[in-house]
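Hi R.,

Here's the chain you asked about this morning:
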Amino acid sequence: MQGYKNIFLVGIKGVCMANISLVLKKMGRQVSGSDVADEFITDELLKENNIPFFIGFEKNKLPENTDLVIYSSSHSGDHNPQVLEAKKRGIDTMSQAQVLKELTQSFHTSIAVCGSHGKTTTASLLSYALIQLNVQPSYIVGTSKFNSIWGGDYAGHTTFVIEADEY
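And the predicted structure, written out as tokens:
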């Protein structure tokens, strides 16, 4: 994720995408995005952390200064009009899975929680336990909030907990 300053997330209200946006913002990046008008559980996270987003996927809503567009499999994935516009302008694009790979590789220790059931609970409990032990982990879990803390945080490049899902 080095070298990118202005990052735009297509489908920013998705739980993973919202938490990625929060982590990237805490890493010092300018973050914004787009999504549908429907209310999501992540609306509070985005609002309280001053992460702006546009309603709709019209290509003219892609900010001029964007140097990376991140997309998920929602909203037509890499065929989304904003992703296609980014490619047309020569702006780098990455899937959500690619971004998670990049983030995971940038930490000294990464812990991925996977499985059929209980990933969010386990990843949340692990992150919370590490916080209580003063390990100061960075993390992305599959919820907007757990134990009154956001589902994503950046606390340096030492330890990273991730809910390994959908990739």
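Helices lie at 15-26, 43-48, 81-89, 96-105, 119-132.

Let me know if you need anything else.
M.
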